[in-house]
TrEMBL record:
<keyword id="KW-0472">Membrane</keyword>
<keyword id="KW-1133">Transmembrane helix</keyword>
<keyword id="KW-0812">Transmembrane</keyword>
<feature type="transmembrane region" description="Helical">
    <location>
        <begin position="12"/>
        <end position="35"/>
    </location>
</feature>
<protein>
    <recommendedName>
        <fullName>DUF4352 domain-containing protein</fullName>
    </recommendedName>
</protein>
Length: 198
């Protein structure tokens, strides 16, 4: 009888200790989960940045009030434009560059930009391996949309996996915010907009 009571007490103590340990671990995890996430780093705007499958170097940002690099705006619209030099770091032609840049702190009617080669206004071209091309990211905006004089552009990178866990094939996966580049934004009159010709 005494042995049975003693084993019950030991069981209660063990269960109580386990519960306390579980509560302690859960509390620690909750505390760490509540900590603010680290902000992505500020990247220098005047150097080339390796962003997974792309090497990118932002060149300039401006607001266009007219057709720019072949992108036609609707009446009453203007556009935020980011020009960047981009190099395809892979072994095949690719145009998976739509999500590389995203302006922060501004409301976009459509987060997906129109993208064109600045040299000939070709829209969404495939970029050949190892060749650097200047690309224009064009986000149409309402004509009265407020655009700050400086703007941060987030850069998204991907990770190359020789063998994906799900499909077992090589590719670029797990997009993540690599960092942010801040550029001045110039308001360009319609008569001076770069690439406004046909």
């Amino acid at each position: 009888m005494l042995k049975t009571a003693r084993s019950r007490v030991q069981t209660w103590i063990t269960a109580g200790a386990g519960t306390i340990a579980a509560l302690f671990v859960a509390g620690l995890m909750g505390a760490f989960g509540a900590l603010p996430a680290h902000a992505p780093p500020q990247l220098p705007p005047d150097t080339a940045i390796d962003a997974g499958r792309w090497r990118v170097q932002p060149v300039r940002a401006y607001v266009s009030h007219a057709r720019v690099h072949g992108v036609v705006l609707k009446p009453g619209q203007k556009a935020l434009v980011l020009e960047a030099d981009m190099t395809n770091r892979t072994a095949q032609s690719d145009k998976a560059y739509f999500d590389v840049f995203r302006p922060d702190g501004i409301d976009l009617p459509d987060s997906r930009p129109m993208i064109a080669l600045t040299r000939d206004a070709t829209l969404t071209p495939e970029l050949d391996p190892g060749m650097t091309e200047r690309m224009a990211y064009v986000w149409p905006l309402a004509g009265d949309a407020a655009v700050p004089s400086t703007l941060a552009f987030g850069i998204t990178a991907e990770i190359f996996k020789p063998r994906d866990n799900l499909y077992g094939t090589p590719g670029w996966y797990n997009p993540y915010r690599l960092g942010t580049v801040t550029l001045p934004v110039v308001d360009v009159p319609a008569t001076e907009t770069p690439g406004s010709g046909s």
